[in-house]
Amino acid sequence: MNLRGKKELVARILGVGVSRVKLMPEAREHIQDAITREEIDSLINQKAIVIRQKMGVSRSRVRKKVRKGAGSRKGAKGVRQGKKRAWVKKVRALRAHLRYLLKNGVISKENYKKLYLWVKGGQVKTVKRLDEIAREMGRRGALS
Fold it and tell me: Looking at residue 144, what is its pLDDT?
């Protein structure tokens, strides 16, 4: 009897990972017959299905005081966070701020589209600069 499907069902119902679900071998037949949520809940109450304890993170690294300070870092500046990752992070922040400005009526839909392309093209580098441009657009109506 393959009970993998039942295991996945239990995991989905309880909101845990499949690896945490343990099906007791003595209750194989009962588990196989269980179809509904109520039947599975009753099997959990009968301890035929057990959820393993979540694995914790070892505190030994904290006790050892694994250091991340500037003196412990080896390699170039771009090693810990690459240029592309940094760019993606910046663009996501700028786009989120653009959506905020549009939602709150600071900029129009047309200006939103224009600024979106500016962000994509790298013309706007910071949220502060984006705010300045948005205020300027609000005063003038639009920028060319």
Answer: 47
What's the CATH architecture for 4-51? Answer: Orthogonal Bundle (1.10)
Measured CA to CA, the distance from residue 11 to residue 103 in angstroms comes to: 39
Q: What phi, psi does 139 have (nearest 5°)? A: -70, -45
Looking at the DSSP bridge assignments, the partners of residue 31 are none
Pick among 1.10.10, 1.10.1200, 3.30.70, 1.10.3470: CATH of 83-140: 1.10.1200
- Residues in the chain with pLDDT < 70? 1, 141-144
Q: What tokens appear for 23 in the block?
A: 């099906």
Cβ atoms 48, 34 nearer than 8 A: no
Q: What is the pLDDT of residue 64?
A: 77
Closest CA to 116 of 141, 97, 132: 97
**For 141, left (φ over 0), alpha (ψ -120 to 50), or beta?**
left
**Domain(s) of CATH 1.10.1650.10: residues in the chain:** 4-51
CA–CA–CA angle 126, 130, 136 (5° rounding): 145
H-helix or E-strand spanning residue 49: strand 49-51
